[in-house]
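Thought: the user wants the 3D structure for the chain below. I'll pass the sequence to the structure tool as-is, report back what it returns, then summarize two notable features.
Action: structure_tool
Action Input:
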Amino acid sequence: MSRVDIAELVGIRTHHPEAVAEAATRRRRRPRLIGDSGRLMIIAADHPARGALAVGDRRLAMANRFDLLERLCLALSRPGVDGVLSTADILDDLLLLGALEDKVVMGSMNRGGLAGAAFELDDRFTGHRAQDLDRLGFDAGKLLLRIDYQDPASLDTLHATARAVDDMAERQLPVFIEPFICHRIDGLLRNDLSAEAVTRSIAIASGLAGTSAYSWLKVPVTDNPDDMAAVMETSTLPAVLLGGEIGDDQHGAYEKWRGALQLPTVQGLVVGRSLLYPVDGDVAGAVDTAVGLL
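Observation:
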C-alpha cells in the first residue's frame, strides 16, 4: 500500500481548508452511475462515524485513519472498483489525496444511531444532506433504516428517511436505502436476516417518500441464501448487496454473494470491512476476488 503523507494532509487541512471544496469542483465525474461493466462495485467506509470501529475481534481496527486511508486508496485503485461510500471527513481526505477521480462518490447521510447507544434507533441525519451532495458534485447518497416494532424511535427514523428520499429525488440524485428489521436481545440491537424480516424491510423501504424514481436498495444476503430469489421479488427497485460481518469465512461470503448476484434486481456490491481488513491481510486480493464475482 502506498503511504499517505500525514504531514501534508494535516497541513492542507490546517492552512487551506478551502482546498476541499476546490478539489470537489475539479474532480472528474463519470457520466453515469453504472459504468461499462453494467455492474456496480462500491467500497464502504462509513462505519467509524457511528462508532463502529471493530473488525472481527479487533475492537479498534478502523480507528487508525491513516491506515484506513491507505487501504481505501489501494482498494479504489484496483480494476473494476467503481467508487466509495463514506462520511464527509473521509471523503474530504480522499478528495485531497486525488483518489476520487472518475469514481462514484456516495455520501453517508444518517450516522446518529451510534452503535450500542440507547438511542441507536433514533438514527438522525447527522451526515451528508441532499444539498451537500449536490453542492459537492457527489453522485449518490446512502441511508440506514433500522426498524424495531417495539421501539417508538423507529417511527422518527422512518419519517426522516422519507423526507431525505424526497430531497434526493428533487435533485435527481440516487439514494441507496439500507433497511433492516431488528430486535434488542440482551440489550443489544440485532438485525433479523430471516427471509420474512428482509422481505418486510424491503417492502417498507420501497414505499417511502413521494417517489421511488431515484431509490435503490442496499440489502443483506439472508441467513439461508437460497431464500434470496423469493425475497428479491418484493420490489422492482434496483439493489446492491451489502457485505456485513462475515467473520473468518471469507470464501463462504463470496459464495453467498455469487448466488445473489445472479438475481435480476441485484446490480452489484457495496462491501467494506471484509475487503479493507481481510483475514489474510491481502486487500488487493480480496477486492479483486469480489470484483470477479460481478
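Final Answer: Structure generated. The two ends are 24 Å apart (CA to CA). Strands lie at 40-45, 83-86, 104-108, 140-147, 175-185, 188-191, 215-219, 239-242, 266-271.
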